[in-house]
Sequence to fold (260 residues):
Amino acid sequence: MEPLRVILQKYPTLSVLVFAVAFRLVHRLLRDLPIPKHVEQDKVKSWRWRNLTVSLVHSLLTGPWAVLCVFSSPEMMSQIYSSYTTVDYLLVCISTGYFVQDAADIILSGQSRASWEFLVHHAMVLLCFMYAIYSHHYVGGTVVALLVEVNSVFLHSRLLLKLASAQDSGLYRVNKYINLVTYVTFRLSAQFYLTWYIVQHFHTLDHAAFFLFTMVFMNGMILVYFQRLVHTDFLRPKRRAAHCGKDSAASNNSAKFVYD
Fold:
């Protein structure tokens, strides 16, 4: 593993670009898979389907990987600034490549306006991840942040099921509860833990003000999305039919899951 670590740290930009291209290749390969006809006939929905499918692949890869990293090196929870292994560093490089690819996909597909929230989110994430890659600091904290990808597996699955008009299926009902639980246990908990850690060690961490600002900003975003999620899946199920037309129109005008 040591030669791999040397290569990754010697050529960080190239490493990220290689993984970005790899995710783009995944995007191309997934285009050959069948998708629901009503999705394929809509340009925006078909783009959303493929974009979300690549995001699901990223989450399936990085979520369990982050969990294994934390379990194998639990000291990184208390040493987010300095503790990491080659496997941790590789994970961060791969995930950074995904975010570069996803941001490029949004921009090049003409979905920047509809997905501006996600471009802002990606910009913040990339600043933090690239800092970790180049400085070799906060790599452990980045791995902890990637625990949110466990929830993203179910979050992306939920959105794909909605695009497939399967909101009334048993699979969707099971997924929505798992999504809610993992949103709290992996997304909210990981984000709030990192925020608490930075506050507690503010005077001993490099660039703590920047990372604290980033965490507070993203905490606000995930709380807004959590409110939307609970409202959509748990507070208005009986009104779904009455709002079918409205939700369909919103779906056509929103890129990822801004209002889903």
